[in-house]
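Session log. Operator J.P. requested a structure for one protein chain; no other inputs attached. Running the standard single-chain path with token output.
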Amino acid sequence: MSQKLNLDKLDYQIIQVMMENAEISYADLGKKLFVSGGTIHVRIKKLQEYGIVTGSRLNINTKALGFDVITFVGIYLEKSSMYEDVATELKKIPEIVRLNYTTGTYSMFAEIVCKDIRQLKHVLHDELQNIKGIERTETLISLEESFNRNVLVLDEEEIN
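Structure written below.
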């Protein structure tokens, strides 16, 4: 991103409202924020150019679709210099939905979503353990997700 970020209160308001409801129309968002739908359109385009808004995603309830096992896997690398090669290989495993390069105990931390324990065993044993550069892993099974939210960029008073 070569452009200098030049965001104002309206930009932050747009981001906050759209994180809560990405389906809101530009016209309705404009009414809520007391500007025109055209202004919203221009601002969204600017946020996309800055790389702040990178698309929209449909949030799904994975449990309702039969994905009953959510795990977090700490990955120890043989050498930290192997990170990019290992990350490239991990990206090929569709059950891995999130991957972070970390400090601390693990070199990498992955979130894996599976239909059942058998599928998890396959991912851990047959896929992860065969990737060159992974020394070992530590798996934590999630019993329940208490909440999942976006970062708050403005408080409610600043939005209204």
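Operator note: The chain has two domains: 9-58, 69-141.
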